[in-house]
């Protein structure tokens, strides 16, 4: 696989130009349920009484295959379980009470079925940005899919995540026989967490993003290491046209105003005189956001960015939810 750092025409800040036979992916948003976020927990200078009911968006990605009429289909994130009783941890159930109202329908499965796709037959890969309750959905809906997760995810599912409440990790929530991790990040201090089953990808830089995986090897879909929120958190960068990209930011932040610079990551009273924030490792989360902001600044309108709980984007773009396509 070609290392973009060695390409003479590659601008280290700008995104690479399309190859002569460049492949592009299609992408569409999927409904994955809704939850309510109190502003005081996520941004600086909040309205202390404001809570916004936001989507937990998922995305359908189609990659054309030259050897087959059928594209390879991926789903990025699975949203909220449509049956909330399927969450096994009591702490998760308690946490859900702090996010009311919560609506688990329509979910990712019904969103796919509405466009004629059967999750049990038509989805080749499920890529999870991370394993928080509002992103893991019901993996049993995808019995024939391969699950791809960030390095160390299987470890924290069994042993808990650093700097995150152990009792809110939904242990055993992924099908181990279907799940493969990305390789450890170069120079990571947590390589001991890596699973023995790893994809054969390698990490390289693209534009302002220091660690990215070229998933198909053709520059159409990049999985981005996006640390800070929880260990193993990943984003995706999609090439959807000659001069157009879509960045899926997962939970790099929970309010679009943090990306635009209008707000910063906020802190709240976690009890016993301690301040908490929405991210397990604040300094890493801030660096991830900085890298995304630089990506947007360096590439201008070429990059459309979406975070998982962006109610403003979802409200303005209902015509880009499956079965209609964004690109």
UniProtKB/TrEMBL annotation:
The residue ranges flagged as biased composition, category Basic and acidic residues, are 1-13
- The question of whether NAD is a record keyword is answered with no
Query: Which residues does the annotated region (Disordered) include?
Result: 1-21
Cofactors named for this entry: Zn(2+)
Q: What keywords sit in the KW lines?
A: Hydrolase, Metal-binding, Zinc
Molecular function via GO: hydrolase activity; metal ion binding
Is NADP one of the keywords?
no
Family stated for the protein in its record: Belongs to the metallo-beta-lactamase superfamily.
Q: What is this protein called?
A: Metallo-beta-lactamase domain-containing protein
| Originating organism | Cladophialophora chaetospira
């Amino acid at each position: 696989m070609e290392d973009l750092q060695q390409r003479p025409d590659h601008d280290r800040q700008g995104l690479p130009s399309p190859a002569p036979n460049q492949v592009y992916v299609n992408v569409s948003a999927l409904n994955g349920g809704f939850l309510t976020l109190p502003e005081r927990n996520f941004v600086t200078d909040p309205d202390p009484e404001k809570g916004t009911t936001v989507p937990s968006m998922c995305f359908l990605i189609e990659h054309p295959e030259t050897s087959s009429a059928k594209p390879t289909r991926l789903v990025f994130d699975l949203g909220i379980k449509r049956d909330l009783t399927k969450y096994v941890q009591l702490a998760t159930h308690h946490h859900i009470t702090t996010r009311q109202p919560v609506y688990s329908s329509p979910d990712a499965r019904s969103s796919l079925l509405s466009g004629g796709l059967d999750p049990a037959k038509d989805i080749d890969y499920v890529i999870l940005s991370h394993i928080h309750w509002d992103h893991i959905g019901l993996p049993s809906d995808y019995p024939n899919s391969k699950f791809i997760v960030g390095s160390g995810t299987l470890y924290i599912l069994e042993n808990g995540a650093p700097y995150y409440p152990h009792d809110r990790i939904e242990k055993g929530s992924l099908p181990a026989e279907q799940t493969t991790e990305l390789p450890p990040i170069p120079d990571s201090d947590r390589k001991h967490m890596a699973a023995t089953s790893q994809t054969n990808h390698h990490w390289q830089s693209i534009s302002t993003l220091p660690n990215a995986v070229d998933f198909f090897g053709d520059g159409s879909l990049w999985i981005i290491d996006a640390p800070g929120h929880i260990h193993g958190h990943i984003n995706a960068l999609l090439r959807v046209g000659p001069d157009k990209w879509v960045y899926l930011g997962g939970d790099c932040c929970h309010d679009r105003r943090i990306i635009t610079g209008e707000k910063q990551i906020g802190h709240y009273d976690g009890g016993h005189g301690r301040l908490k924030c929405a991210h397990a490792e604040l300094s890493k989360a801030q660096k991830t956001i900085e890298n995304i902001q630089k990506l947007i600044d360096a590439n201008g309108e070429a990059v459309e960015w979406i975070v998982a709980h962006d109610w403003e984007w979802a409200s303005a773009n209902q015509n880009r939810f499956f079965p209609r396509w964004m690109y």
